[in-house]
Amino acid sequence: MASVDHSSTSAIVGQAHFDESFEGEEKSMWLKKAFIVGVIVLVMGGSGSVSWSGQPGGARVQDIVDLVVLRPVGVVATVAGACLFVLTLPFTVPTRSVDKSAQNFVVAPFNYTFSRPFPDKNL
Fold first, then answer.
1. Residues 112, 76: contact at Cβ < 8 Å?
2. Is there a contact between 109 and 101 (Cβ–Cβ < 8 Å)?
3. What number of other Cβ atoms are within 10 A of residue 109's Cβ?
4. Alpha-carbon distance 54 to 46, whole Å?
5. 74, 38 in Cβ contact below 8 A?
6. If DSSP codes are grouped into helix, strand and coil, which group holds residue 77?
């Protein structure tokens, strides 16, 4: 029978383990770099489309902000306003200002969110 030297085998296995962990770190670094490059490409691609917004049919920055930021904030404001309206009822009923409270807390945010035309030229 042949005798196997286990000390050299464990050194090779240890070296392979080190190489695998180094490859993992390399992969991690490569993924981070790829993610950063992807984000830069997306940002630059978006800014390029904004620069062509003077073309007929192009989206204006205000339209994108309206659709992505202002409308969702309006939905949140409508829900929060409805909650505030209900919470203020004990104070507005005795003073007979329920209509004003409803207008300010519920109707105004609802109209801002759902009744305005898109794209809104008055932004």
1. no
2. no
3. 20
4. 14
5. no
6. helix
| Six-digit token string for 92 | 């507005």
Phi and psi at residue 93, to the nearest 5°: -65, -50
Q: How far apart are CA 15 and CA 6, in angstroms?
A: 14
Residues 76, 104: contact at Cβ < 8 Å?
A: no
- Contact of 92 with 101, CB cutoff 8 Å: yes
Query: Could you write out the DSSP letters of every residue in 79-121?
Result: HHHHHHHHHHHHHHTTTT-HHHHHIIIIIHHHIIIIIS-SS-T
Reading the chain (123 residues) residue by residue, the pLDDT tens digits are 555 555 555 555 555 554 555 566 777 777 788 778 777 776 666 554 444 445 555 567 888 888 888 889 999 999 999 999 999 999 999 999 999 999 999 999 999 888 888 777 776
The alpha carbon dihedral of 101, 107, 113, 119 has a sign of negative
Radius of gyration of the chain (CA): 31
What is the DSSP code string of 18-61?
Answer: HHHHHHHHHHHHHHHHHHHHHHHHHHHHHHHHHHTTTSTTPPPH
